[in-house]
Amino acid sequence: MIDSHYEWQVLTNATDSEDQQLAESLGLPIVMVKLLKKRGLTSATAIETFLNPSPAEINDPFMLHDMERVIDRINEALINGEHITIYGDYDTDGITSTAIMYETLTMLDADVDFYVPNRFTDGYGPNKDVYERLIRQGTQLIITVDNGVSGHAAIDFANENGVDVIVTDHHEIPNELPAAYAIIHPQHPESEYPYKYLSGVGVAFKVATALLEEIPQEMMDLVALGEIADLVPLTGENRVLVTYGLKMLAQTTRPGLQALMELAGIGLHEITAEKVAFGITPRLNAIGRLESAQLGVELLVTQNPDDASNFAQTVNQLNDTRKQIVNDILAEAKSQIATVDLTSQKTIVLAGDGWHEGVLGIVASQVVELTNRPTIILTQANGKLKGSARSIEGFDLFQALSAHDDLFSSFGGHASAAGLSLVSSNLDKLKVAFEHEADIQNIILGTKAPLIIAEKLPVEAVNEQLLMAIQRLAPFGNGNEQPYFEITGIVSDIKQIGAEKNHLKFNLLANDVKLAALAFGKGELGTGLLIDKAPLNVVATLTENTWQGQTSLQLMVKDLQQGGLAIIDQRTNKLRPDNFKLTGQYVFFNPKVKTQLMPYLNTESSAVSITNGDKLVNNVPTILVDLPKKLADLELLKGYQFKELRVIFYTSQHVYLESLPTKADFGKLYKYFLGHANIPIRDELSKLAKFLQIGVNQLSLMITVFFELGFVRIENGVLNVLPNPEHADITSAPSYQGWITKQAIEKSLIYSKTSELTKILESLIS
To answer: Is 544 in the same domain as 574?
Structure first.
């Protein structure tokens, strides 16, 4: 069987007459109506409003607290020719916020520049030293975007030096607000703004709208980028902003964005929130993760095509570097995880020397995905540790770490993510404390992360009409997730694709209907799927696939499960340490091979000599390491339950492709032996094989047969013919019969196709 990675939670509800009436009145599939009702849209009016976002839903910017005060102060600065500095942030939301504010003030002929803090030297938010430098260089008004609401010290310094600070932010409001000239924040305690979930770029856009006295539609492409990147809920006003922002992005005239999307392989005509999230956002975020994010703003605001192309090339290269760094750190992290007792440990805390600080949050998220455990990833240098933490559903990270804030030099975050630094000597204390908090919050080992499924659907219900209806829910994102459906069918036409064969492409069949499916990161399972046999359950979203001008429906698989015996084919003729990384039970048919290979197993794995009577454990990963001497040995596995069965079937000596020596070959060799005495076969077997023009394995077999039948004597590696041996049939020798048996076993277990091997093992084990 292949088990699911997630816990599937189907939000089922029966279809009633009201659902049917709504579906008919709105012209929607019944599945769509049920889905919308689950999301709180229960009337035709509510559904129509949601499916047809309107600019009328964009709120008046002057409803935000302090907006009039902000506009008056900026206009005053414009009149007086004051030098304005926009103080931004280094992620995509901050970069786009900076670009919008800069373009707006430039349109108004302001004396304006921008400063994006460096993640490594300045840190997040207002920095007193940077403010001091800016003021010394002539800045007379500072406008923060996507930061500032917690910047007390820097803002106080600016006030003391006669420089006003306008804060525009959306992050969590502290108990005490800074003494800024004005604060624009959708959740300001004195605000009556009707929508609370704008991102930083959304807030900057509201200021731009108020300053320009109209909605600057040409800037909405940047709004879409920032809002999608910052994972704010795509509901209410955000849904409208992103919907129209994506339309503007599809016709953007920004040379920087055009060049970047071309490098990302994204056509303007195919812009979606998903393509932004996975194609553009990682590239823009990579800038601030590795270098100064000033480059990101320059990319977005330049009108020079040559500069745009150069900027885009640099950004793309930074993203490639970022991916390689993440892969390298993740590989080291996995090696450390292999030493962790996951049967008892509820949390993961990993540290490495020189791990790049800018990508630790990405690595932490990937480790959480792998282990379903709250995770802290730290980089170590000069006796200090700095890093990122990510959580799982049901575990409050901020609460857990706040209880031990005495361990940290600095710490900040929220329930699902945090940043922290500490001295290296506190690492062991942190591990103990983090594990203790997991006990307090009652993390239960063995539980899977939940995966919410909108509906179970038969294959025949998945069609272009349903896809078109689902696409009306877009843009998808936080708060408006693309719906997952559970679909069951028979597997056919499996292909492992990708440079490293780590993705799966296959078809799902049922009732004469065939659906194409793609499963990223599931390549290893390809050899374990039962083709044309046991039903496969998949959880997938519905997407379009365009190939050679033809567009068709495709399932994008998130998770899958299948009953029956899952055989994962890892057969090889050369063993490597990677063959023994998996924690599980390694089954050996030859005790000598077990003795040789046991040192390569990790400490959590077990070695089982099945032919010596060792017992297996049910429902743990099981690896068949070496080739059995006879097929009947595999029947020793009967009666056990396997979560998965991996087969290596290693043998140091392959005989299937070598022909069995003929009687003539035996006669020729015996004649040679009769004419020679004291033949040193131990030291010169290869020379003798070459002289006789016969394979070493074949020569070794014939010598063994002669020895077993009493034709020769071998002492201390030296062979001599025995006088007057009794007549015997060479085919009766045990080694001769063993060669025939091994050829048959190799044919069945080594040289068979995966599908054939599966059938053989099922017949012997089930």
So the answer is: no
User: CA–CA distance from 350 to each of 283, 305, 375, 501, 643 (Å)?
Assistant: 26, 44, 8, 29, 28
Alpha-carbon gap, residue 219 to 434, rounded angstroms? 44
Output the domain CATH number for residue 24. Answer: 2.40.50.460
Q: Which residues constitute the domain of residue 351?
A: 345-440
| Residue 343 structure tokens | 């049967």
Separation of alpha carbons 623 and 618, rounded Å: 13
Q: What are phi and psi of 384, to 5 degrees?
A: -125, 150
Residue 61 binned pLDDT confidence (cut-offs 50, 70, 90) = very high
pTM: predicted TM-score of the whole model, two decimal places: 0.76
Residue 714 lies in a domain: yes
Task: Count how many domains the chain has.
Answer: 5
Each residue of 175-219: pLDDT tens digit? 899 999 999 999 999 999 999 999 999 999 999 999 999 999 999
CA separation for the pair 195, 688 (Å, rounded): 88
706: number of CA atoms within 13 Å, CB side? 27
Q: SS3 for 564?
A: coil
pLDDT in tens, 134-163: 999 999 999 999 999 999 999 999 999 999
- DSSP single-letter state for residue 589: S
The answer for residues whose C-beta is within 8 angstroms of residue 72's C-beta and 6 or more apart is: none
Does residue 290 share a domain with residue 406?
A: no
Residues in the chain: 766
Render the burial of 252-262: b for 16+ CB within 10 Å, e for the rest: bebbbbbbbbe
The pLDDT, as a whole number, for residue 573 is 85
Q: In whole angstroms, how far apart are CA 481 and each of 285, 474, 478, 683?
A: 22, 9, 6, 70
Q: Which residues are bridge partners to 546 per DSSP?
A: 551
What CA–CA distance (Å, rounded) separates 81 from 90?
Answer: 28
Query: Which residues touch 39 (CB under 8 Å, ≥6 apart)?
Result: 480
**Contacts (Cβ under 8 Å, ≥6 apart) of 676:** none
Please tell me the distance from the alpha carbon of residue 299 to that of residue 320, in angstroms, as a whole number: 17
**How high is the mean pLDDT of the chain?**
93
CA distances (Å), origin 634, targets 4, 170, 615, 647, 731: 27, 63, 13, 12, 26
DSSP helix/strand/coil, 760:
helix
Q: Is the pLDDT at 521 greater than 80, yes or no?
A: yes
Largest CA distance in the chain: 121
141 and 259 both lie in a single domain: yes
Say if CB 560 and CB 536 are below 8 A apart.
yes
Do 152 and 246 lie in a common domain?
yes
Q: Give residue-wise pLDDT tens across range 684-708.
A: 899 989 988 888 999 999 999 999 9
Phi-psi region of 349 (alpha: psi -120 to 50; beta: other; left: phi over 0): beta
CA dist 84 and 137 (Å) reads 11
Query: Residue 504, exposed/middle/buried by CB under 10 A (0-12, 13-18, 19+)?
Result: buried
Residue 120: partners with Cβ closer than 8 Å, 6 or more residues away: 357, 358
Percent share of the chain, pLDDT over 90: 74
pLDDT digits (tens, 9 = 90+) for 723-740: 999 999 999 999 999 999
Whole-number Å distance between alpha carbons of 203 and 154: 21
**What's the number of CA atoms in the CB half-sphere (13 Å) around residue 398?**
7
Q: What are phi and psi of 700, to 5 degrees?
A: -60, -40
The pLDDT score that the predictor gives to residue 457 is 92
- Same structural domain, 39 and 83: no
How confident is the model over 629-688, as pLDDT tens digits? 999 999 999 988 887 789 999 998 888 888 899 999 999 999 999 999 999 998 889 998
